[in-house]
Amino acid sequence: MILMQDIYKTYKNGVTALNGININIDQGEFVYIVGPSGAGKSTFIKLMYREEKPSKGKIIIGEKDLSDLKEKHVPFLRRDIGVIFQDFKLLPKLTAYENVAFALEVIEESPKVIRKQVMEVLEMVGLKNKARMIPTELSGGEQQRVSIARAIVNKPRIVIADEPTGNLDPETSWEIMELFEEINARGTTIIMATHSKEIVDRKKKRVIAFEDGVIARDEQRGEYGYEV
């Protein structure tokens, strides 16, 4: 599902964020990305949905080779990838329903399909009864649920989550993790960058640890491995 071969990324300011990365992630895996700040995690994640391009190396997502992917085809790549951020990135004047529907409107789905799929995912994340509320009327955990619903509404094969529990209290964080596990159980590949030692150590999934732009560890049923 995700293949990276000899990936290097050096920014214009001369900083090398990734230095010879090789990764293979299969369909349906749940992978934690860990490591200290500045280790290369965010760059790795941005490469997958083409927010950044590698300086050197080959990236294949699904059947798409990103090495020669034209800019006009990037939106089609992103239809297969749901992205969830720490700060939710919801549109503040739109309701929960409208925020989720927006992801389908931009790919010109029919109104009938939009209503069906939006209500299905809002029910899945436990917000069907709050569909008409705007983000400021929702708690942080509820806003993150809306962002998850938006990420999965078009049934992507990959979900990338960048610190999705970073702004949430512990109880809400575990609720969000249960939701991710439900999504993963349906066959969706989950890539989650996190600084939560407790979550990583308890869940025992595959752990890929970045340090100074290289992969320090890649372990099945791994642990966080850093002091917090």
Automatic annotation (TrEMBL):
Record Gene3D superfamilies: P-loop containing nucleotide triphosphate hydrolases
Primary location group: membrane
Location of this chain's protein in the cell: Cell membrane
Regions that span the bilayer: none
SMART domains (UniProt xref): AAA (SM00382)
UniProt xrefs under PROSITE patterns: ABC_TRANSPORTER_1 (PS00211), ABC_TRANSPORTER_2 (PS50893)
Topology of this chain in the membrane: Peripheral membrane protein
Signal sequence, start to end: none
Keyword terms: ATP-binding, Cell cycle, Cell division, Cell membrane, Membrane, Nucleotide-binding, Transport
GO BP terms, alphabetized: cell division
Cellular-component GO terms for this entry: plasma membrane
Domain ABC transporter positions: 2-228
Pfam entry (one): ABC_tran
GO MF annotations, alphabetized: ATP binding; ATP hydrolysis activity; transmembrane transporter activity
Biological function: Part of the ABC transporter FtsEX involved in cellular division.
Subunit structure: Homodimer. Forms a membrane-associated complex with FtsX.
Family membership noted in the UniProt record: Belongs to the ABC transporter superfamily.
Protein name: Cell division ATP-binding protein FtsE
Source species: Oceanobacillus iheyensis (strain DSM 14371 / CIP 107618 / JCM 11309 / KCTC 3954 / HTE831)
Organism taxonomic ancestry: Bacteria, Bacillati, Bacillota, Bacilli, Bacillales
